[in-house]
Amino acid sequence: MLYGIIIILLSYFISMQVIDRLMPVKRGKSLSRMHQELGLPNHSAQDNKFLKKLFWYHLFLSLVYYVYAVFNPSDSAFYYTKVSEYRKGPDWFDFYGTSTTFIEWTGYPFINWFGFTYEAMMALFAFFGFLGFIYFYKFFRERINFKSTIFGFDMLHLFFLIPNLHFWSGSFGKGSFIFLGISLLFYGLNNIPKRYWVLLVGALITYHIRPHILFVILASSLIGFTFSTKGLGYTVKFLMIAVATVALGFIYQDVLNLVGLETDTIFSEGLNMDNRASELAKATSGLDITTMTLPEQVFTFLFRPLFFDAPGMLGIIVSFENVFLLLVTLVFIFKGGIWYIIRGDFAVKTAFFSFITVSIALAQISGNLGIAIRQKSQVMMLFLFVIIQMYDDKKKQAFRARMRAAKRKAAAAEPAKAGG
Prior knowledge:
Radius of gyration: 23 Å
Low-confidence stretches: 258-285
Helix content: over 70%
Mean pLDDT: 81
Structural class: mainly alpha
Order of helices and strands: HHHHHHEEHHHHHHHHHHHHHH
Shape: globular
């Protein structure tokens, strides 16, 4: 327990430094030229304060997960036992690999070299998950200038308070690491020339946790770069398409191995994930979704349980969140969300196609509702970004229209002053 407290204190100190570096409080001349010239809102102080408070919110829900894991079967406890008992061998690289084995490989030096307890490992990976929230927030804020509200609340802050995202990214397991990896990927995509190393680190983390998710994000980035004309030069487009194509070829076989397919059967039989789904369906209790149609599977994956089919107390709590997500999605669609995605820039297209493609894939292999609740937290942030970006773009259009009107009014007033 003492180790765990020490790790929490260290993670707090490091998190505060990262927040101050990525989200500094800016005043007056420290604002960008665009903010000064256009008079855009300055959110820096509120952002810095919000993220520092979010640390404690994330820590609380991580502790909730720890208590949940004490009284329920947990992958995190199983990972710790396997590593501490050297079940795969005495050496560190006996544990190296993708998916579950990478989590064990990451935990090996902390557990077997530095003597981390189970609680310390939970605290360490909760810290990794919180870093994901910091980088996701930075990615959002670099593109979101105006405050948008939904149901009377700040949409950006509300999205980052969704409990399920913190609950599943706050433990010793794949959830926290994949969340960090995806956040680094999209933070890097927002400024490729200056953040190519961040992009690489995010890609490596995502690949080692879930190769198929990296595969989908790379394929989605190809779509985004190819079919977007805004925000990217042709040189950057060409380079990213080339890099993504090479990377897709590199991880192609790993993806097929993960879902249990042979290369020569891919075209004759397609991506049949029934076997994978049936295996995962045995992993925990919950509503079996393997017999549903694809649209039902995707809807169930994203928005269920909805009170009437909630599996236990955790399911009831998640139902409140799902009702909120369903309402937000419906409002997004009715406000022209589909057309916005078609017209959106490369980041919007990449985020949406990554979200929907991963959701379709995971909906087919999650097996049951219990696993779906956990899996969707890995990609839901991408859809929330698309939603809030649409609201912000509409505000930008209105803001620019007001700026043009003010300039025309000022230009018309100049001759009158000269004549007077």
